[in-house]
Design a protein that fits this description.
Elements: H1 8-14, H2 28-38, E1 50-56, H3 59-74, H4 80-88, E2 96-102, H5 112-132, E3 136-140, H6 148-154, E4 161-169, H7 194-202
Antiparallel strand pairs: 1-2, 2-4, 3-4
The structure holds flavin mononucleotide.
Organism: Plantactinospora solaniradicis
EC number: 1.-.-.-
Protein name: Putative NAD(P)H nitroreductase
């Protein structure tokens, strides 16, 4: 990883979900390289309870057809062919669709929610690393994470859960890299004071 890459605060504040992405996307080797770094995210028990399935090129169309097959059943008011065309085209919004699969170790001493937290931490780290390299990404979920057709085509096991897709590619060239307006979240912050506990005990 090059030292010239963006500093951490800049990367965090300038990363945005990118809705329209084009070539180039990272190669398989570059993706693996970034993933090795992202996998350093905190992971209780170091279980790495996840895997990625990369979908590119014409394989995207096969995924789009899975989405269309499942969407058609859910939208009876719209003509089926229109639904199919619209939904199938969604996969063309980026050259690389990295499928995030959660593989919880069931019955493990590390609870499932902690495994999910570790997976989410890794995914965010990966988005930041992609951004620092000049790529854009967006984590997309929606109803298709439950698509039985997509699950079957991608070869998911029964205990695995689809957490969605990182759509990855290059953002438009004129995309301004403005740091976002930092939100005040101090209302989500408090400091515990022992004196308050003592007061509550005295006056319950
Ligand atoms: C788990 C997860 C699922 C998401 N699913 C979608 C989605 O299905 N469609 C979408 O447009 N954005 C999706 N997003 C992106 C959020 O909408 C986006 O992060 C949010 O609007 C804030 O924008 P920002 O990432 O540019 O800060 C998802 C984000 C996360 C973390």
């Amino acid at each position: 990883m090059g030292a010239a890459e963006m500093d951490l605060v800049t990367a965090i504040l300038t990363r945005r979900s990118e809705h329209f992405l084009t070539d180039p996307a990272p190669s398989d080797d570059e993706f693996a390289d970034l993933l090795r770094a992202a996998a350093a995210a905190p992971d209780h028990g170091m279980l790495r309870p996840w895997r990625w399935i990369l979908v590119r090129h014409t394989e995207r169309h096969a995924l789009g057809e899975c989405f269309a097959a499942d969407a058609g059943a859910e939208r009876p008011d719209e003509p089926a062919t229109e639904v199919a065309t619209r939904v199938a085209a969604k996969v063309l919004r980026a050259p690389l669709l990295a499928t995030l699969v959660f593989q919880p170790r069931l019955g493990h001493r590390i609870p499932e929610w902690e495994q999910l937290a570790a997976t989410s931490s890794m995914s965010h780290a990966l988005m930041l690393l992609l951004h620092a390299r000049g790529y854009g990404s967006i984590w997309r979920t929606g109803a298709f994470v439950a698509s039985p057709t997509a699950r079957q085509m991608l070869g998911l096991h029964q205990d695995e859960r689809l957490l969605g897709w990182l759509y990855i590619g290059t953002p438009p060239r004129d995309r301004a890299l403005q740091p976002r307006v930092v939100q005040d979240v101090t209302d989500r912050l408090s400091s515990f004071r022992l004196t308050e506990v003592a007061a509550a005990r005295r006056h319950p």
